[in-house]
Every structure is written in structure tokens, then in C-alpha cells.
Design goal:
The chain is an alpha/beta fold. The chain has one domain (9-93). The chain is 36% helix and 19% strand. The chain is elongated, with a radius of gyration of 16 Å.
Amino acid sequence: MSTLVPPPLGLYIHIPWCVQKCPYCDFNSHALKGDIPEQLYIDALLEDLATDIEKYSDSVQNRELTSIFIGGGTPSLISEGEIARLLKGSKQESHFLTT
């Protein structure tokens, strides 16, 4: 009987837009030009998450999702409603994980 517990998972979500690109920043980020395609971007992130969970299901099955980190760029440029949808969708996509 194995007593090994698989390590928990953390999810990193990247928001690549900034008001302006800082000269020292090496992250994948882009100065905002016009409106952010929030809904399309969040849809794509959730689709990518579903694909990755299916692809790596053997590795992530029964592992606890303990953190979600949203970085960038400037994540606060995304509306509260779309961030809420992203978090809700992330939770739904990882439904099989122990939380």
C-alpha cells in the first residue's frame, strides 16, 4: 500500500496586455492598442485548459489544485466579470481534481 501523496497543482494564467511596455520587462507582454478582446481571450484560455487537462489527465488525476496565479502583463486590465468567468471556468474544468 503506497502512502505517497502526489504534489498539489498550481495554475498560472497569463494576461499579456499592459498600458505600456516597461523597458526592463522580459515577460511576454504587449502595450495596449485599443480594446482588449477579453471575451475571446478568456474563451481561448478555458479551451486550452480543457485540452491540457484531457491531454495530461493521467498526471493530474486526483491532485489538489491549491493555487491559481494570474500574471502578465497587467491582469487588472481585464474586467471583474471576465476574471470571475475565468475563475469559475477554471474550477469547472478541473472538476475531477480534489479541492
